Each structure stands twice: as C-alpha cells, then as structure tokens.
Amino acid sequence: MYDAPHYTTQETAVTDVKIKAKDVQVYYGENHAIKDVSVEIENNTVTAFIGPSGCGKSTFLRCINRMNDTIDICRVEGDILIDGDDIYDKRVDPVQLRAKVGMVFQKPNPFPKSIYDNVAYGPKIHGMARNKAELDDIVERALRRGAIWDEVKDRLQAPGTGLSGGQQQRLCIARAVATEPEVLLMDEPCSALDPIATAQVEELIDELRQNYAVVIVTHSMQQAARVSQKTAFFHLGYLVEYDDTSKIFTNPEDSRTESYITGRIG
Amino acid sequence: MTDASMDSAPVKGRLTTVDARTRKRNAAEKRFKAYGLVAILIGLFFLVVLAVSILRSGLPAFTQAEVQVEFTLTQEEFDAAESQMLKTRAYEDLFIAALQGQLEERGLEVAFDPAAIERLLGKTGGTIREFFLENPDRIGTPVTFDLAASSRVDGYFKGRVTRDTVVDSRFLMVSDLDLVDALADAGIITSSFNWNFITGSDSGVDNPGGAGIGVSVIGSFFMMLVVLALSLPIGVAASIYLEEFAPQNWFTDLIEVNISNLAAVPSIVFGILGLAVFIQFMHLPQSAPLVGGLVLTLMTLPTIIISTRASLKSVPPSIREAALGVGASKMQTVFHHVLPLAAPGILTGTIIGLAQALGETAPLLLIGMVGFIARAYPEGVVSGFIDPNSAMPAQIYTWAARADAGFYEKAWGGIIILLIFLLTMNIIAIILRRRFERRW
C-alpha cells in the first residue's frame, strides 16, 4: 500500500542533516511549551511532526523560521542550526532566514491580489528578478512546482482568493517555493481541504522532497504515513520518539507512541 | 396518584399544534420586533421634523427681495452731485427721482418721501456713488441697479412680516407697505435667488439682506486643509506604530487609555488649549484658519487613531503571517498588505473625523474665529491661512445671536449649506469605501 520503507532507507543513506535542534525550550510567558527537544532533520526528506493537539508540534515548527518572534511573550532557548548556522544568533536577521525557510499555513492564505502578484511578491521584495521577463519565469517555475500552473496559466491576473481551497493551498505552496527556499515548513497544510485536494497536495509534497527539506505538521497519522520518511512524535511538549516513519508506525519503541498511533490516547 | 403525576408531566403534543412555551417565545419575539420598529419610527419622525423645520426656516434665506431700477446718470448730474456737501444725499435724490419716474411710466401714483425709500432700501446714495466712482465710463449710459430690500420688506415678501404684525418704527412704517405693494405691482421689486448669500461675506448687524456665507466657507476650507494635512499622516502613523510595532507594556497601555479619553474631551477644552498654546505661547495670529485647523487637528486625531487602529486590527492575521512567511520585513508587511486592506476603514474614519471638525464651533469661539468678521476673499493661499476669517458653524452661531429676524433666517440657511457639505463628505466616504472594497 505504501512503499515508504523502500526509499527511506535509500534516501537517508545519501542525505545530510539540514536542521539540527539541540535542547530547545520554548516558553509562552509562564507556560513551558517545548521541553528539551533535540532533533536532526535531513535534507531531501519529508519529516512529519505528529501528536495530539497542544503537544507543541506547531510551536516547534514555527521556531524553525522564527515566526514565534512575532509573539511578544514567546521565548526560545537552546540552539537550532540550519547548515551549521545558529538561526537564533544575534547576527541573523529573521527576514533573511524566512526567505530561506518557506512556510505554508494551515488555512490557505493567499494575498487579496492576483495569482501572479501572489507568487511574484516574494521574489520582488528579495530582488530576485532584474526585469519583468525574469519575474515571469520565476512565477511560472514556482507555479509549475506548486502543480497549479496548468489550472491558472490563462488567468494569472485573476484574484488568488477566487480559487478553490485546494488550488489556494497549492498557490500558497507556489508562493513559498518562489523565493527558492531550502527548507519548507508546512503547518497542517491539508486540514482545510477535501480528500481530493488533499491527495493533490500530498503528491506535490512528495515531489517537493527532491529539492527541499520538508517538515510537515499533521493531525492525520495516515497522512504522516503516506508522505513522510521520518516521523517525530510530540507529547506534552516533549519529543517522545523520532525515527523512520516505517519504524514509528510498525514498531514504535515508546509505549506512548504506540498508544497514540493505535488510537488509545490523543 | 399515578394518574395525577402523569398529568403534570410535559405532554408531548403533535407538531402541528403549537405548545404554550413556543407560543410564549414567539410572542416575546414579536414584541421585541415591535419595540425595534417603534424605536426606528420615532427616530425617523424626529429626522423628518428636523429636516422640515430646517428647510422651512432656511430656504427663505436663499431668496431676496430686490429693487431693480434703471438709472441714467448724466455727466452734469455727476459733477453737480460731487460738488455738494452731502454727496450721497444728492445721489439719493437722483435715485428717488428715477424711481418715481418709473412708477409714473407704469401709471402708478403713490405718495412717498425719501425717508420711506431709506427704510426700504437703506442708504442707496452711497451704493450708487461708489458704483459711478469706480466705473466713470458708465456715466451717461443706462445702468440697472439691483438693490437688496431691507430685512422687513424682505420679510413682508416671504410672509414673515404682515400688515398686522408690523409696528411703526424707524425700520418700517405700515404706510410704507403701500409703496412696497405698488413697487411689486410694477415689477420693480421682485424676489430673486440670493447668490450673495452663497458667495458673499458677513454684513453689519442692521443689514441682514447683505449677509453671505461664502467667505466663511473659504475659512472652513482652509481650516479643513490644515486638519487633513496634519491629522491624516500623524494619526495613521501613530496608529500603525501602536498597532503593529509598539511593545505591549504599561506605557503603551497608558497612551491607549489617554487616546480613548481624548476622544471624549469636550471641544471647548481643546479651544482653551489652542488659545494658550498656539496664540498666547506661539504667537500665531488670532482668528486665523491656521490656528483653527491646528485646534481641530488635536480634536480629530483621537477619532482618526481609533478608527485606523480598528481597521488595522480587522485585517486577518493570516495575511500578516503570509507576508512574513515569504520573508517580508515588518514594514513591508504593513505597507504592502495590511495598510491597503485597512485603507477603506481609515478613509471612512478620516472623513467622519473631518466632518465632525467641520461642524465644530466651540473651539473657534476661544481662538477668535467668531464674531463680526466681514472681509473680502483671501488674496492668496498664505492669506487664506493666516488672515482673520470665520468658519461656517461660527458664522451660523454669530447670525443666530443677532437680533434681526433676517439673521435668524440666514442662520437656518447657513445650516442648510453646512449640512450639504457634511452630506457630500459622507457620500464621498461611502463611495471611497465601496470603491476600495470592490477590489475582490
């Protein structure tokens, strides 16, 4: 039914560590939301974060591109390194970091602008195109990677908010990849989509793996099993178990993981 | 026993019969709807009463009884009049002669004395002399003079003054009304649209016929320019900072509370502040639209800040996340995405703030933009800002405080003009809002 084990072993053998987190603690005011999380996320791999609601998986995801900086009361301790650079170093500008670490959100959130402008916005503000022709190329490439080009190529000037939910989410993925990130974070990207749109996005995620390290937070264990090669199980702020997806779903080491994937907790 | 307890249990009736509880709830709903409707009808009733009374009292201000006399002044008459001691009196005699001639031409004979003409038309001689001194080339050619009739004659035409109510005084004698009737029959005195009311300036206390609101409209216009130029950028910048950038601490909380309170401070307090700071401390000119604008800016700022913050807050956070997610800086996020989405709300708030400032009178009392300020149109932009002027509401206030019933009418007329401006601004606000929101 799913052949993840087959290419998991194959990929992990040749890929390197992209993101390395060590003893990460996150506090929301007094609330200790993430406790001692250490994890190594590999390049060209889809890593799924699973766990019950409020377990800290989204919080940890948002640490990787410093989206938590926008929350006043949020405090992050520990080290998160991307390609060996500490992203919480004082010299790191979060704006530059976010161009390198793209993000797709739970609810499709296209800008209330045209489809073209949605995708072109990132490249424009990062000065990636010198002229209109280059920008057109970037937009087309991004929309193709977002697997939505064929559906929208005739109406690039139509509003992005006029697309269907699934199309909007793929547009958001196209927008995220347009800035040529190296890591793609996805926060429950399919939770607002119907099964058909979900299947399309999942297929897309598997393709995106060729170029990026993809980290996906999901509530659906089936989805984690379908799209990921590595899975991390979070519970009450702790990273309980992190291993190959096939191992987590067939032979978990921790009893809590087993309880969760068999539906006894969560 | 069991039967009794079964009876008291709620009876499950058929769906087609409405039970007592439902009937009660439906009745309550119906009553509430009726209350709402009554409240709206009461509001509408007062609105209609207000509109009718304003229109009824104010519309007469837009017409004015005028005497049209065709008049030819020969060079000899001019020289003779100029050589006399009482020059204007000489012109008046000439004018009366001309008027009498016209009446006789039409076959009407009414006895009247020069004093009656003065009561009807004021000092005509001065007006005529001024005209010919300014236009000496018109001497010897027929000139038609449109002279505004006095307030009471005007009132007689509008039905405000009747033969029963008029009391002999230095303003009007009952016998003068015979002359007025005769002049009206002859078509010499007619009621025409009073352009001077819309374009003119204030006049002396005994000449309501010559009073116009035009110059104070210009005063209000320059004031609004100051308010717009200052309050929009300052207000929007302050709101963006407070809403998007400022840290959440006791200091910003304090500012927030103060802004909300400032919106409720009585406007006369702002007037005193303006008097103390702008005039006594900074020595800016008194009665100047610049100072008026500064004071009204202080008043408008809280309104603009509150509405701008509300519209910034209403932009969904997902848009901010989306922009930050693709690597936009905070400022790019705000200016590229949040501000355009908040623009309709900001514009509406600004225009409502401006409309409020346009109708504000109390602060103007304190900085001297009220009282008798009759002046010509400002000569230029600078003069428009710093020369003494009045503003529409202040002008209305001044007129309402004067004794002559003619000014009372002008005050109502001024209110109509002020309301037209306010309505126009509100319509612009609605149109802008629609236009910006229709983007998707």
Walkthrough of the structure:
The complex is a heterodimer of chains A (266) and B (440). In chain A, helix 4 (115-125) crosses helix 5, helix 4 (115-125) runs parallel beside helix 7 and helix 5 (132-145) crosses helix 7 (165-178). In chain A, strand 4 (74-82) and strand 5 form a beta hairpin. Chain A is built from eleven helices and ten strands. Chain A is 39% helix and 25% strand. Chain A has one domain (4-110, 180-261): P-loop containing nucleotide triphosphate hydrolases (Rossmann fold). Chain A has helices spanning 4-14, 57-64, 94-100, 115-125, 132-145, 149-152, 165-178, 195-208, 221-227, 245-250, 255-261, and strands at 17-28, 31-42, 46-50, 74-82, 85-86, 101-104, 183-187, 213-217, 230-235, 238-244. Chain A is of the alpha/beta class. Chain B has two domains: 63-193, no CATH class; 214-437, MetI-like (MetI-like fold, Orthogonal Bundle), CATH 1.10.3720. In chain B, strands 2-1-3 form a three-stranded antiparallel beta sheet. In chain B, helix 3 (75-83) packs antiparallel against helix 4 (87-105) and helix 12 (267-281) packs across helix 13. Chain B has 19 helices and three strands. Chain B has helices at residues 2-8, 20-58, 75-83, 87-105, 114-121, 124-134, 151-158, 176-185, 195-199, 214-245, 250-262, 267-281, 289-313, 317-325, 330-358, 362-366, 381-386, 392-400, 405-437; strands at 63-72, 142-148, 189-193. Helix content of chain B is 66%, strand content 5%. Chain B has 440 residues and is mainly α. The radius of gyration of chain B is 32 Å and the shape is extended. Chains A and B meet through helix 3, strand 6, helix 4 and helix 7 of A and helix 14 and helix 15 of B.
